[in-house]
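Before the break, one more example. Copy the sequence into your notebook; we will annotate it together after we see the structure.
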Amino acid sequence: MSKRQFIPIEIFELVIDFIEDEKALQSTSLVCKAWLPRSRFNLFRVVELNFPGQLDSLLHLLESAPDIAPIIKEISISENSILALFRPAMSIAGRFPLSLSSYPLVQPRRLTVHNQLWLPTRYSPDYLLELSRFSSITSLDLFDVSFTTVADFSIILRALGRLESLHAIHVDCQRQLDSDTSASIGCELPFLTFLRVSSDYPTSAVDWLIAHNKFPSLRDIEISYEIALDDQNQGLGALWASTGSTLENLKLGIFKRAAGHPISRGVMEKQLNLSSCTALRTLRFDCRGVREVSSDWTWLIWLITQLPAGAKGYPLRSIVLAFQHSSHALASLHRFTAELDRTLSEPSWAGTLAEVVFELDYRLPADEDEDELALLEAFAGLRSRNLLRIA
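Here is what the structure looks like once it is written out:
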């Protein structure tokens, strides 16, 4: 009599992990007892709260099925509603810390907030304390979030003092505080190792974040930043000064507020001087958003010349220039190719720089792309030192 063959439960769990439809996951949770844990994990690992009633439903579910609580690893809030504007204390952002505090097994690792007016100073007086109970949150992702002032932003950061990762994408404030007050409410995030920010001008909320807060452990930064040609009060320079001894990997996208005009020397010296970044290993310039033909890259060449290339033990090994495709790179760099090639081929880089990479989003086979061949030819100095690479 032949033995029956059983499919290991791990195979079924792998299949369940690929299911993204909520109704389908609800169905798999009803198939058998063995499928329930994995189905629940995929259903409740990320909890999305878009309407006030969804928070109430979650609370009822936790009351009836408390074993779901430890499954929740991320809470995502996106409530752009009239209620959040006129009765902020009744909004999801205003209620969730106190509401979920009754369920101590709810210990999310990530909090994501989208398209939200976040007003901690208009919630409960104990809002900072209530939010700080979620010490498990190590990642905060903010997308299109507005605060009344940076004081509200400060309350959030102080409450979530164990953050390791912070995304602040198009964060804004409705009112500006005076410079002394703004500086006095900064805080320290001792565990933060990754920071990603993106901001169009005016960049005041992000400037407060990067200029008046301390990140003693920060190693990785991704920043997309619109720089004013004559505004020396933006916060980039303060960021490099405060993180220079720890920053290892930097992805930098600089966009000029007035296209076609060069950034002034004073602004470059104050905002784009990376000479204090002595631990830098990888420097990536994101040029994919540049739309100008024959753009002005004086700032980029100046920035590279300020790097401590000849310093003993300087660890920078890789410089990456990201473009959409080879034609985009050629058209954008144009009259600056020779100067950029000469700057990166300086003898001071010998023994330090291992590669200069043109990273292209779209790439044809090398033998079919004439612009890629022209790009290689334009950087003869880098090719002679075997540093140039196209990826």
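The first strand starts at residue 46 and ends at 49. The CA atoms of residues 301 and 339 lie 8 Å apart. Try to locate both features in your own notes.
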